[in-house]
């Protein structure tokens, strides 16, 4: 039994990159550059779930303040099976209608990590009680 558990742990560890981060909504986030990261494709979710994962990664994964601005770097719309790349560098942003309609206040096409988390991360614990 001990060998089975060790095998499962090893397979899980080797199946995701060393720099992978698991967001509160279960999405995997991989840092792709000093200020860039990608939320890996997940077929069962909406675009706003990518914002949740991005906000969670910036605040918990990178330890940055909740006011840190997040911008979309990969162009919309996504191709089938493709995740979304985000950046903290405003110079690398692409226009993104989703941000303009979901919580941006500065008009810069970005969203703060805190807003992304508080608006789009559901606390699933309450569904089980």
Would you mind describing this structure in some detail?
This protein is an alpha+beta fold and 129 residues long. The protein has one domain. The protein is 33% helix and 16% strand. The chain has 4 helices and 6 strands, in the order αβββαββαβα. The chain has helices spanning 2-15, 47-61, 97-101, 113-120, and strands spanning 20-22, 28-31, 36-39, 69-72, 84-87, 111-112. It has a 6-stranded antiparallel sheet. β1 (20-22) and β2 form a beta hairpin. It is globular, with a radius of gyration of 16 Å.
Q: Could you estimate the helical fraction of the residues in percent?
A: 25-40%
Strand percentage lies at 15-25%
Distance between the termini: 32 Å
Structural class: alpha+beta
Nearest-angstrom radius of gyration?
A: 16 Å
Count of helical regions: 4
Number of domains: 1
* Biggest sheet character: 6 strands, antiparallel
What value does the average pLDDT take?
80
* Elements, N to C (H/E): HEEEHEEHEH
Anisotropy-based shape = globular
- Give the total of beta strands: 6
Q: Which strand order spans the largest sheet, edge to edge or round the barrel? A: 1-2-3-5-4-6
Uncertain parts: 2-16
């Amino acid at each position: 039994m001990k060998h089975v558990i060790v095998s499962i742990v090893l397979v899980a560890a080797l199946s995701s990159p060393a720099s992978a981060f698991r967001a509160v909504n279960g999405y995997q986030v991989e840092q792709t550059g000093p200020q860039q990261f990608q939320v890996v494709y997940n077929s069962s979710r909406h675009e706003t779930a990518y914002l949740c994962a991005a906000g969670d990664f910036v605040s918990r994964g990178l330890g940055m303040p909740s006011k840190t601005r997040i911008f979309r770097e990969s162009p919309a719309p996504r191709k089938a099976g493709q995740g979304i790349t985000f950046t903290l560098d405003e110079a690398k942003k692409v226009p993104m209608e989703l941000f303009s309609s979901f919580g941006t206040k500065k008009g810069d096409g970005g969203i703060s990590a805190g807003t992304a988390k508080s608006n789009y991360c559901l606390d699933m614990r309450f569904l089980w009680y």
